[in-house]
Amino acid sequence: MINNPTPETQAWLALSFVPGVGPSNFIRLLQDIGSPEIILQSSVATLSHSVKAPLAQQIKQAQDPALLSQAIEWLQQPENHLLTLADSDYPQQLLQLPDPPPLLYAKGRRELLQKPAIAIVGSRNATDQGKQNARLFARHLSDAGFCIVSGMASGIDRAAHEGGLAGQASSIAVVGTGLDRVYPARNRDLAHQLAQDGLIISEFSLGIQPLAGNFPRRNRIISGLSLGCLVVEATLNSGSLVTARLAAEQGREVMAIPGSIHSPQSKGCHQLLKQGAKLVESAQDVLEEIGLPIHATTAKTTDSPDSTPDGEYGYILEKMAFDPCPVDIICDRTGLTADKVCAILLKLELEGLVSCLPGARYQRLA
């Protein structure tokens, strides 16, 4: 916790507020000139050896003291932190990136950044099956000692955080806004839980809105913090594929869960598999891919119901397989009447074993 930020910390903040500095210029200035305090005291001529003249002029101009005052006030709250490249507990994984974030704003359990981590990402418009997979994989991997990293979006990201928080190693959210706002707003409850039991981090200053260009930058941190990246569901234009590409470029393992050939949410995963990603069906597959031992609690990646349905219930589940299926097809496969099938499907839905989809289709969940 930083109750009263030192002059050194204030210099890091002040330099980060200069428009156009960005990670690459920030790091070049650190390498060429020295600490942010020295950089801010340097002449335009000296600065111009490292950055373009207009940016050098910007650095020498007086900054808006309101930004610094806002950041200091935020840091005085007990759960809020600031990490810089000069801090000993700055995540070592991020130092391997060509453009590590010079500063990280953090809310919650700062020590989680020192745990081994696995990224779990996927579609915002996820299927129930996809969300269940993300939640269960995350729970088992968290119990195995791996912090779950994701982007706090809806769908797969949210489910992954929920699973990570339910396990022993918790979860880290990397967001594309300032930490004084929650995006999307409907995940406010999740953000509060992460701030209490997990961690939320951002390289963006307070007040920064969820601009489209922020999220690819956010994605490099998600993959950079992690030993491997698991994509659960993704369409062909999903941002999760960007995270997977960044993970591959960073030398991290890339993994994907296969799905139905008929589902748009599976096509991105199938593309990754064609490109050489590891096909995984269990938490054990994930841990084997990253070359680490598996904890006993991760041997299974699905929860069994209290009692396995038998008779007609089990027969319907068997005939449904795992693709979305209309009621009339289930009737054809089972030989049962529509009334009978609908009654059984209602029972299975209440037990969490099937999900009702648009168009009167049903999908088996486990």
What does this molecule look like?
- It is a single chain.
- 43% of the residues lie in helices and 13% in strands.
- The protein has 366 residues and is α/β, with parallel strands linked by helices.
- It has a nine-stranded mixed sheet, with helices on both faces. Strands 10-12-11 form a three-stranded antiparallel sheet.
- The longest helix has 16 residues, at 128-143.
Briefly characterize the structure.
The model is unreliable at 294-309 (pLDDT under 50). With 366 residues, this protein is of the alpha/beta class. The protein has helices at residues 7-16, 22-32, 36-41, 44-47, 53-60, 65-75, 128-143, 156-166, 188-197, 214-224, 239-249, 264-274, 283-289, 311-320, 327-334, 338-350, and strands at 80-84, 103-108, 117-121, 147-150, 171-174, 199-202, 228-231, 253-256, 278-279, 325-326, 354-357, 361-364.
